[in-house]
Design goal:
3 strands; 3-stranded antiparallel sheet; about 80 residues
Length: about 80
């Protein structure tokens, strides 16, 4: 399954982190590029597509990659 260029930017941030990130932490990495609601929409889409997992703690969601970068790139070369 392909992801959009915008979704890829978010995935690259999470892959680089190597662990869990909140939407606020991702937003700080994308300073001035997107509104918080836009980030949340992309995170939901990536979760629905199975690229991210989310762990909720209160109102905070902690996002982590369900697919590593090399797996994704390998799957794209097979398509």
């Amino acid at each position: 399954m392909k992801i959009s260029d915008s979704e890829m930017k978010i995935m690259e941030i999470i892959w680089k982190c190597g662990g869990e990130m909140t939407s606020s932490e991702i937003l700080r990495q994308l300073t001035g590029k997107w509104a918080p609601t836009t980030i949340l929409t992309f995170l939901k889409r990536l979760t629905d597509k199975g690229f991210l997992t989310v762990r909720k703690s209160g109102k905070t969601g902690y996002y982590s990659a369900a697919v590593n970068e090399s797996e994704y790139k390998c799957s794209q070369t097979e398509e």
